[in-house]
Each structure stands twice: as structure tokens, then as C-alpha cells.
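Hi X.,

You mentioned you wanted examples for the new student's onboarding notes, showing what a folding record looks like when two proteins sit in one file. Here is a clean example. The first protein comes first, with its sequence line followed by its C-alpha cells.
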Amino acid sequence: MKKKLLIPVLALAIGTLAACGTAEKEKATASEKTEEKQVLVVGTSADYAPFEFVDTAVSDEIVGFDIDLANLIATELDYELEFVNADFNSLIPGLQADKYDVVIAGMTPTKDRDEVVDFSIPYYETEQYMVFPKDSDFASLEDLSGKLVGAQVSSIQEELAKTLATEHSFKVESRNLIPELIQELKNDRFQGAVIENIVAENYLSQNDDLASFPIEVEDPDFKSVVFQENSELKGQFDEVIQKLIDEGKIDELKKKWFVVEE
């Protein structure tokens, strides 16, 4: 009797093992399919509308041209993004300290910055404005002689303002955030502020007591994504940025974000 029972019991055991093997294989396959995407921590400074800002009337979420661009790139490369808001002047030190994998904050490559971080290919060219109280009726940099001009800390606008100050005999003070510059203008603490064109135009559209004129510079200013030195992400991002330029996707973002509402 024991011999007769051996075959079905053995068959049952083999069937069970086979079923377990199939289940494990299916489990492994499911695990591969549901494997989480790599998360990149992205540093930004959300005081720079329309590039990155928080529309508090809508939500606490950081939005803007740069945020949309970063998300388009992440989709192409199959990354998840985690945005971290910080003061602009802390972004490069944070990148060097491994707090961020990448920075996107309307940042322009400069010689000093390029010595400690790497930059993507440019995705946007910008101009600079001198913003001032409209009743001052300034028309040129010469009109700022003896005045106090503001700029954002650690920005190319700060560098430009300091260079122009030597040439045109005005003083420069810096603030951490663009809204602080605007407030200093409205409080008559500053007589002028160097702010890039698209950002300035957004504030000008909301403050009819302010005006501006463009500042001529010899070399054009560009915006780029920022990486740790020798990061493999640079090559990946460069390829996708060029693709987005070629496909007209970046022009679409400009039309979405750079329309100034009167």
C-alpha cells in the first residue's frame, strides 16, 4: 500500500515545487516591473518668477518654466524629481556638499562657477534691465550716478551691477530675494535694481509705479542646468535639452510662461 501511495504523493510534491517556482518567477517579474525610478534631488530658488516660484493663491507647489523643463527632461530619462527650495546663493555650495543631484534656478555659467561645478548646454538667452521708480524718470546708467542700486546675492546681476557701479559712480547693495529688491525700490531705499528682463517684466506688469530700461552687455547671458563636477547627468541632460530645443518644446514653454499679463 505504501508503494502505491508513493507515486501520487511524489507527484504532488513536484507539482507544489513547480508551482512555487512559477510563483517566485512571477513575483520577481512583478518586482522588476514595479521597481521605483531613481529620484534626483533638485535644488532651486523659488523667488524667481516665471522661472521658479510659488503661486500661494493656488498652492504651495513650486512651478515655473524651469520646473516644467526639469520635469520634461526627467520624463525622457525616466527619473523622479524631488525639488528643494533654498536661497540662490546656497545652491552651488549645496550641490558641492551632495545635498542636490542637480540645480535648476535660472543660473548663468560664469568663469568662477565653472571652476567648481559643470553646466549643461544653454537652454535660454537672457537680457538685463535696470528697474527703478517711474517718477525718477531715469533714461540711462549715467542717471544713476551717486544713487544706490540693488541686486540679488551671488547672481550675475550682482556682478554686473558692481562692474557698472565703478563705471557710473553708483553704490551697490545686495539682497537674497528678488521680492526684497522690489520692496526696497518701493520704499525708496534703492533708486535702481539690476534684474533680468523676463523677471523684471513680470514685476513691472504688477507695479505701475516702476519702470525700466535695458542694459547693454558685450557678451550674451545664458541659463543652464547645474551639476556636480564630472557628473554623468550632464551628458544625459545635454542630449535631452538639445532634443527639446530641436522639437520646439522649449519654445512652447516660453509661450506658456513668458507671457506677461497686464
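Then the second protein repeats the pattern, sequence line and then C-alpha cells:
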Amino acid sequence: MVKIRFDGSEYELSEDRSVLDGLLDQGIRMPYSCKSGTCQTCMVQADRDAGLDPKWQTGLKATDKARGYVLACQCRPVEGLALRSLVLADSTLPAEIVEKRPLGAGVMALHLRPLQDFTAFAGQYVTLFLGDDTGRSYSIANIPGEDGLLELHVRRIPGGRMSGWIHDDAAVGDRIMLRGPAGNCFYVNEAREEFPILLAGTGSGLAPLLGVARDALRQGHRGEITLIHGALRTEDLYFRAELTALAAAHTNFRYVPCVLEAGERDDVTAGSLDQVALGFLGEPRATRAYFCGAPEMVALLKRKAFLAGVASRNIFSDPFIPTATAAAA
């Protein structure tokens, strides 16, 4: 066992578990979500400015690293470690809900207006906070700079505190705190090349893919853009009319709805997402691939795309990782 300090109190934690798990076991309430170092919800600040393991800060912005911020789910107890909670007012900014719109398939479009200066790329994600101990991450589906709003797609998670509040209780005019942006799933084309773009994902993993596609088209990308949205059944797909209209308006954009269980009358492509997506991989060496959604599918797509010839530096992904407690339930 190792003694550490958290918010001024001393705790004995096992060296074999993360600081987050150790503190939760002792009844400490703190925000967390994925427990895998992806969402950054459990970020805390280390009082000591030396000896921090770089793994504890994986994915954090340089400014956050310089402040001594670490991820509690990646941090391991070491003797002399002192941590403190982040004051949400210091690490987040307020945003106002300006619209809620059901999209179908249990997904709600949430439009937020940040009430302070905020810069992000379409496809990145932000973390919303409900109270001091609940934070969840959602990807940006629109181009934030166009109207100053953030469009998030929130899938209802059974028993989910945040998604339940957004679907059932949140109202236009309500305020919520957000942190971010984070993530590398966004469009960049500094050399103005005409490379093909392959976008593939499941469920509300459509949101960042939609953001990337919208931004690429806005910037005049001339290469072929293919977006494949996968689901179990046709009724699990959403945003079909908007994506169909987007494809009709741009000759270089293709939308492919894909389901595992297709009926005879369903106007979709039948098959597993990985097989369908790789079928559109025409020029692997030139392709930029973006994969989002269920972690297992994202990992499979990344592996198969790499083996097919897509360079690892050209594969971008943000897997959807449900809250650890919700996933366990």
C-alpha cells in the first residue's frame, strides 16, 4: 500500500490499481467516465511538478501538462504524490442549450452556445459536466465557427445520468459546463491534396464523421469522400435524409448506410461494417481513414485498414467508450 494525498486528506491505496479506482473504493466522489484515458473526464492536478509519469498525461494539451494535470484513471499511486480536484469553474466554460431535436434511433441532437471564447475543429469532442461528479464526452458534428454553436449527438444510454438528463430534463436556456476540445479526429489538408477520405462508424459515432465530412466539403476538398454508417438494423440508423441530401449536393461525397440485418425492402447495404468499408478502399496508400463508434469495431477497422495498405499516420479514430459503470451494468 502507498500513501498519497488528495484534496488535503491522506489515503492508503494499492499500487496495483489506478488512483481513480482507489479513491472511488474509499467513497470519494469524483467525475469519471471511460476509465481508459480517452475522455479526460477524471483529470486532476498534481501538486508536485516533477517525477510525473508521461503516461498519466497521455492525450492532454501542452497547456494542461504544464499545469500538472494528470488523468486519475491512468495515474498510479506513488509515495509522496499529492493531487487535488480541479475547480470546474477554472477548467471548464459555461454553455447554453439553444436547441434539442430528436434524430431517431434513441439519439438527440443537442445544440449548445459556449458563453466564452471557444475554438474547436469539427470532429473533436467536448466533455459536459452535470454537477461535480458526472462528466461525459460527445463529438462535434458541425463546424463550430460557422454559427458559434456546437452540435452534439447524444445517444440514450440505459441508466445513463447525463444522457437521461439531456433526453428527458434539459431545456432550452439551461446552462451546462463543458471542457475541451480534445481528440484528433478532424480534417486537415495543408498541402491541398486530392486524397480520398474514408469515414466509417457505428451509432452516434456518426457525429464526428459528419463533422469531418462537412468541414472537408466546406474547405473545397476535391478528392472522393465516402461515409459509411453502420448499424444492426435499418431502424438503428439516423440522419439518413440529411446525408442523402448532402450526397446529392456534392458529386464527390458518397453516403452508404450499412446494416447487418437488412430486410428485402430496405434501401441499404447489407453486411458487416468492416467488410463494406474496406470494399470502398480504392487507393489505400493515399487514403485518409476516420473510424468512430464502438471500440471493438474501431479496433477492427484500424487493423484491417492498416493491413490493406493505409499508413498508420493516416488513420484517425475516437472510439465511443460508454461510462464504465453503465457498461458494467
